[in-house]
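Structure in, sequence out. Go:
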């Protein structure tokens, strides 16, 4: 603050009332209007607010301000779904109902792209792909694992009307007990 008065007058103000001249803008000295430090702070705050008032704000037809869209860190990258194992539809000689030789209550039904495995206690289903003599079982309803996990790979062979399945990996799903090293027979139609 610039003060034209002497040091004792600056400390005490006009007539020894320091607060009177600081709070009262009408007290003049040397042709200048004096304000106290508090008044200068208020003026500075008003100036800052006034400068901010010129900023553009979106308003709706109702007159209420619309908040600006929030900016955020980079959007999470979504992982594309895993592709099924390579292969194609089951050949026609595999399609149909197959009954387990060890237990006639266990039935494996194969379609071109899926399977249903039933026993007296429960039934599960899922997808299959066939590549040469490999059949892959995946996306099973009784298996909580999703691709690329949860794939049971089996080598299949046909001898007459009998289908034999031998594991190529450790099938992580419950169907392993019903498929591993099992033979199934297909009724002759």
């Amino acid at each position: 603050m610039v003060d034209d008065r002497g040091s004792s007058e600056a400390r005490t103000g006009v007539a020894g009332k320091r607060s009177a001249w600081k709070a009262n803008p009408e007290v003049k000295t040397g042709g200048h209007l004096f304000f106290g430090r508090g008044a200068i702070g208020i003026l500075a705050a008003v100036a800052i607010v006034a400068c901010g008032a010129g900023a553009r704000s979106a308003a709706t037809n109702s007159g209420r301000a619309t908040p600006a869209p929030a900016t955020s860190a980079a959007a999470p990258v979504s992982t594309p779904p895993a592709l099924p194992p390579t292969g194609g539809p089951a050949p026609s000689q595999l399609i149909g109902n197959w009954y387990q030789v060890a237990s006639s209550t266990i039935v494996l039904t194969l379609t071109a792209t899926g399977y249903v495995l039933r026993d007296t206690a429960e039934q599960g289903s899922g997808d299959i792909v066939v590549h040469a003599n490999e059949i892959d079982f995946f996306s099973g309803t009784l298996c909580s694992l999703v691709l690329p996990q949860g794939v049971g790979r089996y080598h299949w062979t046909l001898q007459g009307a009998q289908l034999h399945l031998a594991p190529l990996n450790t099938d992580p799903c419950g169907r392993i007990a019903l498929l591993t090293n099992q033979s199934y027979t297909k009724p002759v139609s």
